[in-house]
Amino acid sequence: MTAPPADTHFIAALGADLARAVQAIGTPHFMDDLTRAARGAVPFDNAMLFAYKTGERPRGPYSDIAEPAEARIVIDQYLLGPFLLDPFYSEVQQGRTAGLACLGDIAPDEFFASEYYEQHYRRTRITDEAGVFLALRDGTVLVYSVTRRHGGPAFAPGEVAMLRALAPLLGALIGRHWTGVDLGFGPAAGTGHAPDPIAAALAALGHTVLSARQRQVVALVLKGHSTETIALKLDISADTVKVHRRHAYARLGISSQAELFAKFLDLLSRAVAPQG
């Protein structure tokens, strides 16, 4: 059977946009040209690039958000500490260095009801997000995120398939452009195992009043995991999870996830991420 004809106009336009991006590698126009090509393949509202390196506060070297007030909410405030609860950051922490991930696929089961979602995603008006992951030679992991905002629809399956097909090429081009660029990180860290930044924040938050298990439970609550998934992850019963959560809240003098999140954020910039 003969294959149906491809949309030659679409392919030609995408090829021209990608060629323009290739020619712009190493210039200030590259990221905008790449974003124009990606947007031509799959419509989205905004694109952002985040750089993550062990032991360092992340950097946000690119976004196409034109309004400064919006950029402060979407980029600057995220980098001050809330990134620690972000599903895309969790993917980096778990070792992802390539491919595409969509928010709905990597978010914990109660993420969309979590305080982090309420305080960050609703404020940024992001309704869906897809990220292309790639690793640089120095260990930095870049995530190029494209977002639907302001009530826009989630990415449809066909759009996700297109982004997934383009992810290796987008990642290769981004990697070529950013390799060797000073992103503002400090000297390379040693080879020792880096401490869990969320655990460090919770240790500071609890001031030694929380047990190790209580800190584990609270960290998973903050990320948006349900009682049932916490029980599975920690290999304990759901009732035991509830007891640990109740005792942790009592020891912290709080009664809700909103209060927990507020306390957590209050410590992040001082107790977790090193200053850049």
What would you note in describing this structure?
- The structure is a single chain.
- By secondary structure, the protein is α+β, with helices and mostly antiparallel strands.
- The protein has 2 domains: 17-178, 2-Layer Sandwich (Beta-Lactamase), CATH 3.30.450; 197-271, Arc Repressor Mutant, subunit A (Orthogonal Bundle).
- 52% of the residues lie in helices and 13% in strands.
- It has a 5-stranded antiparallel beta sheet.
- A hairpin with a 6-residue loop joins strand 1 and strand 2.
- Helix 2 packs antiparallel against helix 7.
- The longest helix is centred in the middle third of the chain and has 22 residues, at 157-178.
- The termini are far apart.
Give the topology, please.
Layout: H1 8-23, H2 30-41, E1 46-52, E2 59-63, H3 68-79, H4 87-93, E3 98-102, H5 103-106, H6 115-124, E4 126-135, E5 141-149, H7 157-178, H8 197-206, H9 212-223, H10 227-234, H11 238-252, H12 257-271
Antiparallel strand pairs: 1-2, 1-5, 3-4, 4-5
Helix pairs in contact: 1-2, 2-7, 8-9, 8-12, 9-11, 10-11
Low-pLDDT windows of residues: 189-194, 271-276
State the CATH superfamily name of the largest domain. Answer: Transcription factor LuxR-like, autoinducer-binding domain
**Overall mean pLDDT score?**
87
CATH class of the largest domain: Alpha Beta
According to CATH, the fold-level topology of the largest domain is Beta-Lactamase
Number of domains: 2
Element-level helix/strand string: HHEEHHEHHEEHHHHHH
CATH architecture of the largest domain: 2-Layer Sandwich
Overall helicity: 40-55%
Number of helical segments?
12
Q: Report the major sheet.
A: 5 strands, antiparallel
Radius of gyration: 20 Å
Q: Hey, roughly how much beta strand do the residues contain?
A: 5-15%
Give the overall shape.
elongated
Structural category is alpha+beta
| Number of β-strand runs | 5
Distance, first to last CA: 59 Å
**Which strand order does the major sheet show?**
2-1-5-4-3
